[in-house]
Design a protein that fits this description.
By secondary structure, the chain is α/β, with parallel strands linked by helices. The chain is built from nine helices and 18 strands.
Length: 320
C-alpha cells in the first residue's frame, strides 16, 4: 500500500528522512481492527518524529500520521482516537500509553490498524477531512480549555501563536463556548484571521492586553512564556501543551507565579471520552475545524514543507 513514512532520522533537516512509497499492509492482531483511511491530518508531532523525538532508529521505517477518519471493516464512517494503550485497551498490561507512530504504524497510508477500542463513529455532519483534524490538535485544545483551564462562559482567555493547529482550535472552541478570546501572532494576516474566527482582539506577540485574563493557552514556549505569565490575573491558570520555540525561557517568572498564586498546568492530548464530547460539540454547534490546505497523499511532502515553514493557518489534510 502507498504511504508517507520516516525512513531516516535527521534532527537538523527532518524532511530528509521523509519517504513516499509502498509499505506492507497491516496484518491481523487480536483486539485490533483495520481502517481504510479517507483523510488524515498533519501535526507537529510528525515533524518531531522525523527528528527522532519519541521515535528511535530501531522502529524505522515508521509510517507517520496520528489522525485519521475513514471506513471500518463493517463499512462504518469512523474517527480514530490516536492515544494507544490508554486504559490498557489493545496492548499489554505493562505497556505505557503512546501516541500513534511512537510504537505503531500511523495513518498516512491507505490502511491503518488500531485497537478496536480506539475507533469512534464519525458524526454525519462532519466530512472526512474535517473529522481527521480533531483527534490531536483539536482534542488538545478542547482538554486545555475545558478540563485543565476550567474556564466558564464569560471568562477571558489568551491564545498565544494564532495560526497553529492547537491555537486555531482554541480560538474557535473558546468563541463557541462563550469565552472572551484574545490572541497573539507576529504576523498581521494571522492576527486578522484570528479576529475573523472569533477572537475579540489580536495583538503582536508580547503586547499589553486590555486586561489580565483568566487563562492562557500556551503552545509556543520560550518566546512567549514571560508574556503568558504576566498576562494572567491573580489566581489565573497557564496551560501548556507544547514549546515550538524551545523549552527554556529566559525567565521562568517564578516570583510572579508564587506571589500571584498562579497555576501552571501541563496538558497532553485528551481522553477518548473527551474526543467523543468534542465530536458531539462540533456536530451540534456547527463548529468546524479550520483547514489551511488539502493535498492528496502523494503530495504529502508539500504539506510537510508548509507546516515546517509556518506558512499555514489551521490544519493541513492529506486525502486518499
Amino acid at each position: 500500500m502507498f504511504a508517507a513514512y520516516a525512513a531516516r532520522i535527521d534532527r537538523d533537516q527532518p524532511l530528509n528522512g521523509l519517504e513516499l512509497g509502498e509499505r506492507p499492509e497491516p496484518g491481523p492482531r487480536p483486539g485490533w481492527t483495520t481502517v481504510n483511511v479517507k483523510a488524515a491530518s498533519l501535526n507537529h508531532h510528525d515533524l518531531w518524529s522525523l527528528r527522532g523525538v519519541g521515535l528511535g532508529e530501531e522502529s524505522l521505517p515508521m509510517i507517520l500520521g496520528c489522525d485519521a477518519a475513514g471506513i471500518d471493516e463493517d463499512g462504518n464512517e469512523v474517527v480514530l482516537h490516536s492515544v494507544i494503550g490508554q486504559s490498557g485497551y489493545g496492548v499489554g498490561p505493562d505497556e505505557p500509553r503512546s501516541i500513534l507512530t511512537e510504537r505503531y504504524q500511523g495513518t498516512f497510508a491507505e490502511k491503518v490498524s488500531v485497537p478496536s477500542w480506539n475507533v469512534l463513529r464519525k458524526p454525519k455532519e462532519l466530512s472526512f477531512e474535517q473529522a481527521a483534524c480533531l483527534p490531536t490538535a483539536w482534542l488538545t485544545a478542547y482538554r486545555m480549555l475545558f478540563t485543565n483551564a476550567g474556564v466558564r462562559p464569560g471568562d477571558s482567555v489568551l491564545v498565544q501563536g494564532a495560526g497553529g493547529g492547537v491555537a486555531t482550535a482554541a480560538i474557535v472552541l473558546g468563541k463557541a463556548a462563550g469565552l472572551r478570546v484574545f490572541a497573539t501572532s507576529r504576523d498581521e494576516a494571522k492576527r486578522a484571521r484570528a479576529v475573523e474566527l472569533g477572537a475579540e482582539a489580536a495583538f503582536e506577540a508580547g503586547a499589553r492586553l486590555p486586561h489580565r485574563v483568566d487563562a492562557v493557552i500556551e503552545t509556543v514556549g520560550a518566546a512567549t512564556w514571560s508574556h503568558s505569565v504576566k498576562s494572567l490575573r491573580p489566581g489565573g491558570t497557564l496551560v501548556i501543551s507544547g514549546a515550538t520555540s524551545g523549552p527554556s525561557p529566559k525567565s521562568a517568572e517564578l516570583n510572579r507565579i508564587f506571589f500571584l498564586e498562579l497555576k501552571v498546568v501541563g496538558s497532553t492530548m485528551g481522553t477518548k471520552d473527551e474526543l467523543e464530547d468534542l465530536l458531539s460539540f462540533c456536530a451540534a454547534t456547527g463548529v468546524r475545524p479550520v483547514i489551511d490546505s488539502v493535498f492528496p497523499l502523494d503530495r504529502a511532502r508539500e504539506g510537510f514543507e508548509k507546516m515546517e515553514g509556518g506558512e499555514l493557518f489551521g490544519k493541513v489534510v492529506l486525502t486518499l
